[in-house]
Design goal:
Rossmann fold, 8-stranded mixed sheet, globular, 3 domains, Endonuclease, Chain A, 25 helices, alpha/beta
Length: 651
């Protein structure tokens, strides 16, 4: 052996090692990886048999909660490479996907059980990530380099560069490595840093002439499924496992369920990756040449802008042309003109979607995927009137929502089922907490009683509803619940209860999102929190977007808002949600608390705290009126109480 396992310095590595003198597996890879916390490897020729020789070291790397990144070039036929385009676009090549699929049986059949189990668990735990390298621009040959960087827990590093491929034959050939060590000299360190810099550049797909492609999640999941019951190393931390494709495997299941049906709704909890799942579906449809264009429709400029940013990040300007029809953007006419040579996307508000359908004189929409985000917002009376019978122009219609249906509006629900499709997959907040995708919750109900003024308003609501029923017996009970909710949402009886709770729990204003019904009510809340923090702002839609960014970045501790950011916007740092405004149905509540349920990679032990205001008599008493089946706050109280009991139960 070249040394002990205490650290890389103890390995006493020479400047050059050769297979004729050194057993590369036992005297180089395994001892170095046993003390490593990071392993970066770029290799021009790879077969799964390499794992067999380095399995001991990889197990040691996993024991150290280390991570491995490999840029590899598996065996592909020349014709396969010719079909590939640049960067992530190559993931949409069916030829490449079919060829890469052979990696799974190669690993399953070619490796000993113990080695196969180690690799499968490392992928499942997010400790091993693989990218595929191809050449482009001025290079017409293969990705043929071989080098690596290993870092230990002391932050000492070695780099090696030479001729050995990651294959079983690479251990029997005459091969050599030049080894660079970070602690030897400044000159040696600079050489090492150059090797690491070019690795990172290729990994980030920022290197001229080389393109790196993420291994499709479906293939990574297939490898992860080769695991045995027992993990061959100690369980890593949650922050490591959060990055694993296996942790997010529900997205792959959701994709397959949608593709089986061709259209439908994904009912997935906020924070479980509806956007990423829709991109998986899009990539698969493009790979199968099933669609030529994309239409993304939703409500609200914030969310529409977020979709623009998402697509810009995932598709190059050479590959996709994006048109916008919302806010001050009016690109619909340009989108509806004759097809161009590249993928075209229209991002449009629900209010304008019927204009696209009616103006499709060039038949672009039948070959387009419709992504209807927060699809429950599509079902307003006006939108139903404009869109009924029109959406089936899209062969593929994908609805996304954490709460697609309203229990008190059957007409809206029927419209969504008829026009978009049925729910083809469901993944609830409870499912996500059990898997560790969403964080566990604490629920703090603050009990109060309605004031005499509130009770009078509530009594008036019952009277109004009775009159509505007499005029129209078909009046939905949801109208009554809306009126009752309005009384409670603006009840000032909550304010002294909140003031008292805040006196004993001032920490709840840290990374805190407070939902109020109106700006007027929000001002009353601000007067209370002003005594405990000056780091707060309001966001009611007309406020500058910089406010939302400042809150997301942690520059502001508390944000007082209305429904403006209750849907779709990803702010992982929120830990506390205070619900001054709450609905009877859990739909809106799910959207709002979803801000806090999102896991935070920088805080893997995060627990969400939900503070809610509950009329005590709703829990302890009976409904005040025969029209009310269950007291207004009880449904929400029971659901949030049950949610707070859900714990993480699986990997």
């Amino acid at each position: 052996m070249l040394g002990s396992n205490k650290g890389l310095k103890e390995l006493d590595l020479p400047g050059v090692i050769e297979t004729s003198d050194v057993d590369f597996a036992d005297e180089f890879y395994n001892p170095a990886l046993n003390v490593a916390v990071e392993y970066k490897r770029g290799v021009g020729y790879f077969t799964s048999n390499w794992f067999k020789f380095a399995s001991k070291g990889l197990k040691g790397l996993a024991e150290n909660e280390g991570t491995a990144k490999w840029i590899i070039s598996p065996i592909l036929e020349e014709d396969d490479w010719k079909t590939l385009q640049k960067g992530e676009e190559a993931k949409r090549s069916q030829e490449l996907y079919d060829r890469l699929s052979t990696m799974v049986p190669n690993i399953e059949e070619g490796l000993e059980k113990e080695t196969r189990n180690t690799i499968a668990w490392m992928i499942a735990d997010g400790l091993l990530d693989i990218k595929i390298a191809i050449t482009g621009e001025n290079l017409s040959g293969d990705f043929h380099d071989k080098w690596g960087i290993i870092r230990d827990t002391n932050n000492d590093k070695i780099a090696f560069h030479g001729s050995q491929n990651d294959s079983s034959k690479g251990f029997s050939n005459y091969e050599s490595y030049t080894v660079f060590i970070s602690w030897a000299s400044d000159r040696e360190l600079r050489k090492l840093e150059k090797h690491e810099k070019r690795f990172d550049s290729i990994w980030d797909n920022a290197k001229q002439g080389i393109h790196s492609i993420s291994l499709p999640d479906s293939l990574a999941l297939n490898i992860a499924e080769l695991r045995e019951d027992d993990r061959p190393y100690n369980e890593p931390s949650e922050s490591k496992k959060l990055t694993s494709a296996y942790r997010w495997r529900h997205q792959e299941i959701a994709m397959n369920k949608f593709l089986e049906n061709g259209h439908g709704i994904l009912n997935m909890a906020t924070g479980t990756g509806k956007t990423r799942t829709s991109l998986k579906i899009l990539n698969r449809l493009l790979r199968q040449d099933a669609v030529e264009n994309i239409v993304v429709a939703t409500q609200g400029n914030d969310l529409l802008d977020q979709w623009h940013n998402t697509l810009t990040k995932n598709f190059s300007a050479d590959e996709m042309w994006i048109y916008q029809e919302y806010g001050g953007n009016h690109d619909l006419g340009k989108f509806l003109t004759k097809n161009r040579d590249k993928l075209e996307t229209l991002i449009i508000s629900y209010d304008n979607l019927h204009e696209a359908i009616n103006g499709d004189i060039n038949n672009k929409l039948p070959r387009s995927l419709l992504i209807a985000d927060e699809v429950h917002n599509m079902g307003s009376d006006t939108r139903q009137a404009n869109l009924t019978g029109g959406l089936n122009i899209f062969k593929h219609r994908l609805g996304l929502s954490a709460t697609p249906f309203d229990p008190y509006d059957s007409d809206r629900n029927d419209f969504l089922r008829d026009e978009v499709g049925p729910v083809v997959y469901e993944f609830s907040a409870e499912d996500a907490i059990k898997r560790g995708i969403l964080c566990e919750t604490d629920y703090t109900p603050l009990f109060y009683e309605l004031s005499e003024e509130d009770k009078e308003e509530q009594k008036a609501a019952f009277g109004t509803f009775k009159g509505m029923k007499e005029n129209n017996p078909c009046t939905l009970k949801s109208q009554l619940y809306i009126m009752l909710a309005k009384v409670r949402k603006t009840s000032e009886a909550k304010l002294p209860v909140f003031r008292e709770h805040l006196k004993n729990n001032p920490d709840i204003l840290k990374d805190c999102l407070i939902f109020v019904e109106t700006k007027k009510y929000g001002y009353k809340v601000q007067k209370i929190i002003h005594n405990y923090t000056k780091s707060y702002r309001t966001y009611y839609g007309e406020d500058p977007e910089e406010t939302l960014n400042a809150f997301s970045n942690g520059d502001i501790s508390t944000l007082v808002s209305s429904k403006a950011i209750s849907e779709g916007i990803d702010i992982k740092s929120v830990e506390n949600i205070i619900l001054f405004t709450s609905n009877r149905s859990k739909g809106t509540t799910i959207q709002r608390i979803g801000r806090a349920l999102r896991t935070n990679p920088d805080n893997p032990g995060k627990t969400a705290n939900i503070v809610d205001f509950v009329v005590r008599s709703d829990i302890e008493g009976e409904p005040e009126n025969d029209e009310v089946d269950i007291p207004p706050d009880k449904i929400r109280y029971d659901w949030l109480t049950d949610l707070s009991k859900v714990t993480k139960k699986e990997n």
